[in-house]
Specification:
- The protein is α/β, with parallel strands linked by helices.
- It folds into 3 domains: about 25-210, 3-Layer(aba) Sandwich (Rossmann fold), CATH 3.40.50.300; about 225-315, Rossmann fold; about 330-430, 3-Layer(aba) Sandwich (Rossmann fold), CATH 3.40.50.
- About 30% of the residues lie in helices and about 20% in strands.
- It has 14 helices and 17 strands.
- It has helices spanning about 10-15, 45-50, 95-110, 125, 140-150, 200-210, 250-260, 275-280, 295-300, 310-320, 320-330, 355-370, 405-415, 425-430; strands spanning about 30-40, 70-75, 80-85, 115-120, 135, 155-160, 180, 190, 190-195, 230-235, 265-270, 285-290, 305-310, 340-345, 375-380, 390-395, 420.
- The strands form 4 sheets. It has a 6-stranded mixed beta sheet, sandwiched between helices.
Length: about 450
């Protein structure tokens, strides 16, 4: 979701739910993303159902039952809020539809913080094993495992028992012996043997997830080093026509909560009440955080002693790569009317007259660069594979995406030599204050 506007009406419906007390559940974008991958009928959906304790995914012996990725949020003791993503089999070759399913699976991997790689194993083979359980990966499985390694994704192989004649949970106790999967190049990786059908040994998977959480995960903060305990922070939060009545948009809620956790003093106002709010304060705020759309008005009222940034700029660092976004914003000075620019929104919504990504930013760009600027707009998961024709990509604040997915988009742009920036930095550039705003 664009941090400064987009689809505010859906903020609480997709990013997180409101409870009866008005508190918000953990947004999907803030959860640990765990993708469950494997061949068709390897037991991925059964495994997701066993882990979540619910019939989250449809289970069938028919290959290709899972089409679009199925997502289920849950809390795991000791781990916290997670989002499981059940994917279609990566070996689906059922014509064009199969290719689309595989494409959706690969998109899910761009969001994944951890991958559960599911391989099926007949129960009889497990029962007859006398030393350790070793599952041999075939060529497609090996190829995918190698791809995951190049992406530095933590992978947990899961050998899923398929029930055979006379197989019982008691018989399967020997599967607690050491288990590995072996790729074609002879590389062995520690694995977990589990029974998705009965739920046997599922707790071992949870324990492995805990051990595989990427180092530093969850340690990033929205405001970074911009604030200290006891600082006075002013939040300027205009509520345009797309803001849900009676609520704040997600970035505002998250930033406000973090500032309270950091024991800051917070003053909230809208752009039209900012002047009076400043007059009533005994001292100027240490930092002003504003909606980027009112950068110019807020800059004109900002006390000299106060620093200024925006929610969108804060999310540029929280969700993405602040250095890459800043470098991308500075390329705007070199663009002209022949530029081709891609604007990418994280969510899908009906355009409105105040739409920042579809109306306001294009207007600013054409004012500064010329009316001939060619602007394409994509939303949601739509993001071109071929970016080489673009001069610049301008991304929203991405509060609907997890950081892993935003970084994947940045990496794709960099590999094709296309600079990328975000809404807040673009607006700061258009208003002539890019070099004056505070960066996290």
């Amino acid at each position: 979701m664009p941090t400064d506007k987009a689809d505010k009406s859906r903020t609480y419906h997709e990013a997180g739910r409101q409870t009866a007390g008005g508190m918000q559940d953990t947004p999907s974008s803030e959860r640990l993303h765990i993708a469950v991958i494997g061949k068709r009928n390897s037991g991925k959906s059964s495994l997701v159902n066993a882990m979540t304790g619910q019939e989250t995914s449809v289970v069938s012996d028919v290959p290709g039952t899972t089409t679009d990725p199925v997502r289920k949020a849950m809390e795991i003791p000791g781990i916290g809020p997670c989002l499981f993503i059940d994917t279609a089999g990566f070996d689906d070759d059922a014509g064009g539809i199969g290719q689309l399913r595989v494409s959706k699976t690969m998109q899910a991997l761009e969001r994944a913080d951890i991958v559960l790689f599911v391989m099926k194993c007949p129960a009889e083979a497990i029962r007859n094993n006398e030393g350790a359980t070793v599952a041999e990966m075939d060529a497609p499985e090996t190829e995918l495992m190698q791809l995951l390694r190049t992406r530095n994704l933590p992978v947990i192989p899961v050998i899923n028992i398929f029930q055979g004649a006379g197989m019982t949970i008691q018989d399967s106790q020997r599967t607690a012996l050491p288990a590995t999967v072996r790729t074609h190049d002879g590389t062995e990786t520690e694995a977990i043997v589990a029974d998705a059908y009965s739920g046997w040994n599922i707790q071992a998977i949870f324990g492995s997830i805990l051990r595989h959480i990427p180092e530093g995960y969850g340690s990033r903060t929205i405001t970074g080093g911009l604030v200290d305990e006891g600082d006075c922070i002013m939040l300027v939060m205009p509520q345009d026509i797309q803001a849900p009545k009676g609520r704040l948009i997600l970035p505002q809620v998250q930033t406000l909560r973090e500032l309270l956790d950091k024991k800051c003093q917070v003053v909230c106002c809208t752009a039209d009440t900012m002047k009076k709010s400043l007059e009533r304060m005994a001292a100027p705020p240490d930092l002003i955080i504003t909606d980027s759309q009112v950068f110019q008005e807020v800059w004109a009222l900002k006390p000299p002693a106060s620093r200024l940034t925006s929610f969108s700029i804060l999310f540029a660092g929280y969700k993405g790569d602040i250095a890459a976004f800043l470098a991308g914003a500075r390329t705007l000075d070199r663009l002209g009317p022949d530029a081709r620019i891609l604007i990418a929104e994280a969510c899908t919504h009906a355009p409105a007259s105040e739409d920042i990504g579809r109306i306001k930013i294009p207007h600013m760009l054409r004012q500064r660069l010329g009316e001939g600027v060619d602007i394409d707009i994509v939303s949601g998961n739509d993001f071109p594979e071929d970016l080489t024709g673009y001069s610049l990509i301008i991304h929203c604040g991405a509060c609907m995406f997890n950081r892993k997915y935003v970084l994947a988009r940045i990496e794709a742009a960099e590999m094709q030599g296309v600079p990328v920036t975000n809404y807040g930095m673009t607006i700061a550039w258009a208003k002539g204050i890019l070099n004056k705003v505070a960066l996290p």
